[in-house]
UniProtKB/TrEMBL annotation:
It holds the Pfam family AIM24. PANTHER family: ALTERED INHERITANCE OF MITOCHONDRIA PROTEIN 24, MITOCHONDRIAL. SUPFAM superfamilies: TRAP-like. This is AIM24 family protein. It comes from Rhodococcus antarcticus.
Length: 247
């Protein structure tokens, strides 16, 4: 049985033989970290919520996503910080003047050299610049080049390529067009609906279709309904009510 201490733990790497735990060497710069990701640490550290941190100027310059701001803290101090995420695999990635969009529920932490913005794709965040970030996945991650289509639940993110488009199976489309009198907004599988990637870049795909529920998606959808009039809102209400009845 291995027993770890500050001298034997690695720096900025997975715990040896353990893909579920990652060690961050905090000191030269603070880190942005998702709440709940810390499982242990050595040294002197402070974890400050973004709304009340003493580093407000840093947050204003580097973190631009109001929907997710309450779920993040700034880790500052000196020592070794051990992170985990529900027993999922954790990997580190390096961006160099890069542009990467990642599912918000998979992003665990990132260096303050990177800038975070809210993606136009619901449930995703975009990292820009140069630095290291940590992400979890349900199983190992596969890196693939476009053009390709991906099951939405298996998608972790994409780097240096255009945002994806939705692609629907022809059979599902025929059913949709022929179903004017019934609810057609139910969940689809990856065989019916995919994300379609084109251009150049890299797509990150986890080896599972298990996705963590993201409560912020409801807020995002609500913000998109501002321009709807009463008839459209009533129609949406009926459709959602029918779906709840079916479930």
């Amino acid at each position: 049985m291995d027993v770890w201490n500050p001298n034997t733990l690695p720096s900025n790497d997975n715990v040896p033989g353990n893909s579920y735990a990652f060690v961050v060497d905090v000191g030269a710069q603070p880190w942005f970290m998702s709440k709940g990701a810390m499982i242990a640490y050595y040294g002197q550290m402070a974890f400050e919520p973004l709304a009340v941190t003493s580093m407000g100027a840093l947050v204003a310059a580097r973190f631009s996503s109001p929907l997710y701001a309450r779920d993040w803290v700034v880790a500052n101090g000196r020592g070794k910080l051990v992170l985990g995420d529900r027993g999922f695999d954790i990997n580190s990635y390096d961006l160099e003047e890069g542009n990467l969009t990642i599912r918000a529920s998979n992003l665990l932490a990132f260096e303050t050299g990177l800038q975070l913005k809210q993606s136009i794709v619901p449930g995703f965040l975009t990292l820009l610049g140069t630095g290291k970030f940590l992400a979890s996945s349900n199983g190992p991650v596969m890196f693939a080049e476009p053009p390709l289509r991906v099951d939405p639940e298996a998608l972790v993110g994409w780097a240096d390529c255009p945002s994806p488009c939705h692609h629907y199976d022809a059979g599902w489309m025929q059913g949709f067009l022929g179903a004017a009198q019934r609810v057609v907004l139910g969940a689809q599988t990856g065989e019916e609906r995919q994300f379609d990637f084109t251009g150049t870049g890299t797509v990150l795909i986890q080896s599972s279709e298990a996705v963590r529920e993201d409560p912020h998606l409801v807020q995002h959808i609500e913000s998109e309904t501002v321009g709807l009039g009463t008839p459209q809102l009533q129609q949406l209400h009926r459709s959602l009510g029918a779906r709840l009845t079916q479930q």
